[in-house]
Specification:
Helix content: 40-55%
CATH superfamily: NAD(P)-binding Rossmann-like Domain
Strand order of the largest sheet: 3-2-1-4-5-6-7
Radius of gyration: 19 Å
Oligomer: single chain
Shape: globular
CATH architecture: 3-Layer(aba) Sandwich
Bound molecules: nicotinamide-adenine-dinucleotide
Largest sheet: 7 strands, parallel
CATH topology: Rossmann fold
Structural class: alpha/beta
């Protein structure tokens, strides 16, 4: 979508971090933006602050892991702006503990917000974008953890899912005039390490039983992640990259090259697996 001015976008997880950065960058480019978030107070503040900069934005509260709430939010953008061109599936949580500490409820919560809601977003907004025949774009926020899996396995599983969904959708939606990009950020300075603040009651069993550990490998790991997040890139910079990605129909939107060698090593390992069997005759 070369000319974004006057287009209409729906951004989930827009009250904080990357979502707010994307909403801001799009609004500054003349896009009318409906910000959607589970956190009412933060959402109201974000919308108010953006409105002060003279951009056309509104807010709608929804828990995207509830399909009915996401569908009601879609009704709200149509009621307010009449149509929608851009969907940004960005709402997400950090996920829950490593092997041995993960719980059923933790997996359910992580899958519901990080993956199920993205599928619902596409199902609900895809037909709305197609309807007006003006074209559109879908961006979903995965992560570098959608391309390499090391720690935080429930998180990585959902992010690989978002990459897979986006890669396949790009082929299926191109003939329908809808571009698809997947955002794979490295560390970004946001509130993701405090994701528990948005734990819906129905997933309450995902909450760890006691306070976070203060020593040992898990404490060190959490501290490392918090430090890396604090030193991460600016969410508005990420938002500007997303805007550029939509304008130029980039399949992948990266935010920095820190993990490029790790991804190359993964590809090399996959290539080695092919090399190992290349000269064999498959048995059928
Ligand atoms: N921060 C990073 O380093 C990083 C790196 C890679 C990917 N990401 C991804 O970026 C996305 C945004 O996260 P962030 O880092 O900006 O964190 P953040 O916590 O600052 O923002 C996430 C937003 O999503 C909202 N949210 C959470 N659950 C929701 C729900 N059920 N329904 C609606 N909204 C909900 C939160 O209220 C919050 O406003 C996530 O998908 C995350 O996985 C973040």
């Amino acid at each position: 979508m070369k000319d974004l001015r006057g287009k209409i976008a729906f951004v989930t997880g827009a009250a904080s971090g990357i979502g707010l950065g994307i909403a801001t960058a799009l609004a500054q480019a003349g896009v009318k933006v409906m910000l959607c978030d589970i956190e009412q107070e933060a959402l109201a503040k974000a919308v108010e602050r953006l409105k002060q900069t003279n951009v056309d934005v509104e807010g709608v509260r929804a828990d995207v892991s509830l399909k009915d709430e996401l569908a009601a939010a879609a009704d709200a953008i149509i009621a307010r702006y009449g149509k929608v061109h851009i969907l940004v599936n960005n709402a997400g949580i950090g996920g829950v503990g490593p092997y041995g500490l993960w719980t059923e409820a933790g997996w359910d919560w992580t899958i519901a917000v990080n993956l199920r809601a993205v599928v619902w977003g596409v199902s609900i907004f895809g037909p709305l974008i197609e309807k007006h025949r003006e074209g559109g774009h879908i961006v979903s926020t995965a992560s570098i953890a959608g391309l390499i899996s090391r720690n935080s396995l429930p998180y990585n599983v959902t992010k690989y899912g978002v990459v897979a969904l986006s890669e396949g959708l790009r082929l299926e939606l191109a003939p329908r005039g809808i571009g698809v990009s997947v955002l794979c950020p490295g560390f970004v300075h946001t509130r993701i390490m405090d994701s528990m603040r948005n734990l819906p009651e129905r997933f309450a069993a995902a909450r760890p039983p006691g306070p976070p550990p203060v020593e040992g490998p898990l404490a060190e790991r959490l501290k490392w992640m918090r430090d890396r997040n604090d030193a991460g890139v600016d969410p508005l910079y990420v938002g500007e990259l997303v805007r550029e990605g939509i304008e130029n129909d980039w399949p992948y939107i990266m935010t920095d090259a820190e993990y490029e060698p790790v991804i190359e090593a993964r590809f090399a390992s996959i290539k080695e697996a092919f090399d190992r069997i290349r000269d064999r005759t498959p048995r059928r």
